Amino acid sequence: MLLYYKSLPPISKAYGTLCLLTTVGYQLGLYDKLDLALYYPYVFHRFQVWRLITTLFFLGGFSINFGIRLLMIARYGVQLEKGPFDRRTADFLWMMIFGALTLLVLSIIPIFQSFYLGISLVFMLVYVWSREFPSANINIYGLVTLKAFYLPWAMLALDVLFGSPIMQDLLGIIAGHLYYFLTVLHPLAGGKNILKTPTGVKVRIWPAVFADNAGNDQLGTVLISPCYSSWKRKGS
């Protein structure tokens, strides 16, 4: 188990670990889950700015659903980071940052209001993975096998079928599609990629990791959009 943990790529490992520790702290009674919730009146009027961060790491208490969300990070996040984002750690981190910012902005809109965005951020990873590996075969809870392209929608349909809340998953789909559109679909149609990974992300955060990627990333100049084409080249 320790060897497996050490083998995980850095961003997926860090995010999964922080999600686990957040839930452990909650289960131990170190804080109430309401202290982690994204509630903008408290953010703006009481300056409880930590809520902008903690909401992204809370996946709920220990439960089957919590375990499933962690497994999603371990599978889909790791496959993305080791596949299309191989040796492009900064770009993967920037995707996560963009997704988090998108979710925080969407949550301001009353119809999209969500107090906990961790599940949405995980579901964004699922959506991006489904677009990068569209032809992979996926078995849904032993019930049905389908192409990965349809995975987010199938899971959303199951939420509706079982009466589970769908807003968190829907937010993840919106954030994931916005990222994929801006970095892949729009550039393929002749548009400009406006989501270039900032130089600061590459050289100021986790410099030891990003230094290893400098040869492939062309530090400070590489666009995120090659994630799709680079994977296609590997798979062709």
TrEMBL record:
The chain crosses the membrane at residues 12-29, 49-71, 92-109, 115-131, 138-158, 170-189. It is a multi-pass membrane protein. One of its GO terms (biological process) is response to stress. Keywords: Endoplasmic reticulum, Membrane, Transmembrane, Transmembrane helix. It is found in: Endoplasmic reticulum membrane. It holds the Pfam family DER1. The keyword Transmembrane applies. Belongs to the derlin family. May be involved in the degradation of misfolded endoplasmic reticulum (ER) luminal proteins. This is Derlin. It comes from Morus notabilis.
